[in-house]
Design a protein that fits this description.
By secondary structure, this protein is mostly helical. It folds into 3 domains: about 140 residues; about 120 residues, no CATH class; about 220 residues, no CATH class. The chain has 30 helices and 2 strands.
């Protein structure tokens, strides 16, 4: 045997030895750093200025290195014993303590860590804001985490959030002012609208758990969530805009196909499949997930084993009224967030009756701003026209209220000796109420023609409205209503011989419409074209909302005649 071959065989025999291979493949041992045993001495030496080295080394170990559970447990016991010594000057130590990856600790060490944070906040209130702020940040997921499957919180997130809420619950009981600090923290740390869906999902889910142990914070939590969801809502593309863009894209694709005859049939079929695939905007998807979380929360609060809890419903309804007044009503052209109110109204008939009455009080109150009055009317007409649970009784009662108000307003204007200028800004509410009355008649008249008795009663009710006097008054409401509503209302009143609108419409067409100065009418009358409960295009939360609504007749009419330029009416978008 040659020297070379003998050397090769000896080396290969060494490498084949199991002991050598196991040594080579064995993972490197972790380096653990021992924590000091006398924490009190280190703190006192730091405060007296005798020695900062040991204190700084301790901070470095807590922030940077891995610590054994057993050593950390002993150290946390020392921290709890010295909690009274950690004044404002020790904020760096608290920050270092908060950087420990405490969620993955053993159960005994984790319990000790939570108790340590609770003791520090109870004995040193200066650090409450820092600790709560850090815990709120930890609610958010780490990067590249996937969304929950079917909207169900993962077991790992449940455990993490459970520990965080345990600390919040104890601090809220012991420190009264901590609720204000908690609200400030969750408001400041709320995800920005461009953040990913899962960050919003877990954050909103965590916030909705707080009222379970702190019911006094329910209004503040819901207000914050709905306010941020409204920001998402008004920044996503409108449904009509998306459909118009899709139509334009399809037209462009057709032109390209006509110009390029080299495309084969397979490519055209592939393009058609892509165009037919439903897509949803990223922020719309985030809004969809978050609205479903809110709807689930409301249902869980109001129902216990599928039995409606009236007191819980009453409380959350009044909370929602405050939110509606502060956030929802003043927001123009939101698409989805307002359906949360509709969902609550579906629980019991008295809720929708109370809500419509609340809206009508605002709409008929001259001390309320014109914008809020018009917004309230938009919600009334859209809710009564769209909600499948809106009874015929509340529809007729609302129609009578509107007609009575309109006739009183006309009588006041007729009593004025001088000529009335029908373009004055103070008449905008009058025109909004007229349009709301016309709209409700259009949308709900078919509900009363199923049987002869219902039909006769409804026709008598419509005659009580005295519609001919309304449409022929000198304020001329048909001139200022939406063209689609004018046309539909004229057809219905002619069919049931309630009034004849076409003479007034033809006269309005002959008269040149006045040109208004910027900001005089457009900013307020735009609310007359707003239907808060129109189309609902969010798929996940739509499973709860879509069974509660029906498509508007006017929505169908507008979709069919979207590109037609009507000359009837005062305002066109």
């Amino acid at each position: 045997m040659s020297v070379v071959s003998s050397k090769i065989s000896s080396v290969s025999s060494i490498l084949k030895t199991p002991g050598v291979r196991s040594k080579l493949s064995r993972p490197a041992n972790k380096v653990y750093f021992k924590l000091p045993q006398d924490l009190r001495t280190i703190i006192l030496n730091f405060e007296s200025g005798e020695s900062n080295k040991e204190y700084n080394n301790l901070l470095s170990i807590l922030q940077t290195y891995t610590i054994k559970d057993s050593d950390l447990l002993e150290f946390l016991i020392q921290v709890k014993e010295c909690a009274v010594l950690f004044g404002p000057v020790h904020s760096p130590f608290i920050e270092a303590l908060l950087k420990i990856k405490w969620i993955k600790l053993s159960s005994e060490t984790l319990t000790s860590y939570k108790e340590c944070l609770e003791d520090l906040m109870c004995l040193q209130s200066y650090h409450v804001k820092l600790i709560i702020g850090n815990l709120v940040v930890q609610i958010k997921p780490e990067e590249n985490e996937n969304e929950w499957v079917a909207g169900e919180c993962s077991e790992q997130d449940k455990i993490k959030l459970g520990h965080i809420h345990d600390i919040f619950q104890k601090v809220l009981k012991v420190i009264p002012l901590s609720s204000k600090i908690l609200l400030q923290s969750i408001r400041a740390k709320f995800p920005y609208m461009t953040h990913d869906t899962h960050t919003h999902e877990i954050y909103v889910y965590a916030l909705l758990q707080i009222p379970e142990y702190a019911p006094q914070l329910q209004l503040d939590i819901l207000s914050l969530i709905i306010n941020r969801l409204m920001i998402l809502d008004v920044n996503i593309p409108k449904v009509e805009e998306e459909s118009e863009c899709e139509d334009e894209a399809m037209e462009d694709d057709n032109e390209c196909e006509n110009m390029s005859q080299d495309h084969n049939e397979d490519n055209s079929n592939e393009n058609q499949e892509k165009s037919n695939t439903p897509t949803i905007h990223l922020m719309a998807h985030t809004l969809d997930i978050c609205i479903e979380l809110v709807l689930n929360y409301i249902h869980n609060v109001c129902f216990e084993k599928d039995v409606l809890q009236v007191e819980s419903l009453r409380k959350i309804y009044f909370d929602m009224l405050k939110i509606c007044e502060a956030i929802i009503l003043p927001t123009y052209a939101s698409q989805y967030v307002q359906y949360i109110v509709l969902y609550i109204c579906s629980f019991k008939p008295v809720i929708i009756e109370s809500f419509v009455e609340w809206l009508w009080q605002k709409a008929s109150d001259p001390n309320v701003s014109s914008v809020i009055r018009q917004s309230s009317l938009a919600y009334i007409r859209s809710l009564l026209a769209t909600a499948v649970f809106a009874s015929s009784t509340i529809v007729q009662a609302t129609q009578l209220k509107m007609a009575k108000w309109i006739h009183n307003y006309i009588a006041i204007q007729d009593a004025i000796s001088y000529g009335c200028d029908d373009t004055k800004k103070e008449h905008t509410v009058f025109y909004s109420i007229c349009q709301s009355l016309f709209f409700i008649v259009i949308e709900r008249h078919k509900d009363f023609i199923n049987t002869r008795s219902k039909y006769c009663k409804y026709i008598l009710c419509l005659h009580e409205l005295d519609l001919p006097k309304i449409i022929t008054c000198k304020l001329n409401p048909l001139k200022f209503c939406q063209p689609e509503i004018v046309c539909s209302f004229a057809d219905i009143t002619r069919t049931y011989q309630l009034a004849y609108c076409y003479t007034v419409i033809e006269n309005n067409q002959r008269i040149q419409l006045p040109v208004l100065e910027a900001g005089q009418h457009v900013s307020t009358l735009n609310y007359d074209s707003f239907l808060p409960f129109g189309e609902f295009a969010l798929p996940q939360s739509g499973q709860k909302i879509l069974p509660l609504i029906r498509q508007s007749t006017i929505s169908k009419y507008k979709t069919q005649s979207r590109h037609r330029n009507d000359s009837i009416g005062f305002m066109s978008d």
